Amino acid sequence: MRTFILFVCTGNICRSPMAVALFRAHAAEHGDGERFRVESAGTWGVDGAPASANAQLVLQKRGLSLAGHVARTVSPELIEQADLVIVMTRSHRDALAAEFPQARSKLHLMSEFAGLEYDISDPYGQSLAAYEMCAADLEQLIKRGYARIPIWLEGTPQRATQE
């Protein structure tokens, strides 16, 4: 049984795909590669689009690939299936909580990995340096807060998937 973690940003072409790749890499480093099903979506997903070129570049520098990423919009099915939904901004959290009130207990800000509450800036349309800063922020948050995952899961109904 794998725990399903859904990362959500706006267009599903920058922050959430980078978070997925970074989280998967971190989980694999800790021998947890098979423990999680990790996917992403966007509140206003650019359905069918690849990850942005700069997102791909900054992850290539880390030995990770976003080549197979295909953007999609978050759906009721994804929210229902997910054990945890990790969002990039408070507005993402508020929008999903309003649309899916039954999912409130599984919604968490990405910054909560570090016990903080701030928005992860969207690098879309900005310089490669902005993407690098975003990826570094995501990477540090995952490293700092990876141990929070079981704690968050204790607060939500378990619905681990078999995929």
Quick structural overview:
With 163 residues, the protein is of the alpha/beta class. The chain contains 6 helices and 4 strands, in the order E-H-E-H-H-E-H-E-H-H. It has one domain: Response regulator (Rossmann fold, 3-Layer(aba) Sandwich), CATH 3.40.50.2300.
Tag the structure with descriptive keywords.
alpha/beta, Rossmann fold, 6 helices, 39% helix, disordered C terminus
CATH hierarchy: architecture: 3-Layer(aba) Sandwich
> How big is the Rg?
14 Å
The domain tally reads 1
Distance between the termini: 8 Å
Question: What can you tell me about this protein's structure?
Answer:
The structure is a single chain. The protein is an alpha/beta fold and 163 residues long. The protein has one domain (3-149): Response regulator (Rossmann fold), CATH 3.40.50. The protein is built from six helices and four strands, in the order βαβααβαβαα. The protein has helices at 15-29, 53-60, 76-81, 90-99, 128-145, 148-154, and strands at 3-9, 36-42, 84-87, 107-109. The protein has a four-stranded parallel beta sheet, sandwiched between helices. Helix 1 (15-29) links the parallel strand 1 (3-9) and strand 2 (36-42). Helix 1 (15-29) packs across helix 5 (128-145) and helix 2 (53-60) packs across helix 5 (128-145). The longest helix has 18 residues, at 128-145. It is globular. The protein starts with a strand and ends in a 9-residue tail after the last helix. Mean pLDDT is 93; it is low at 158-163.
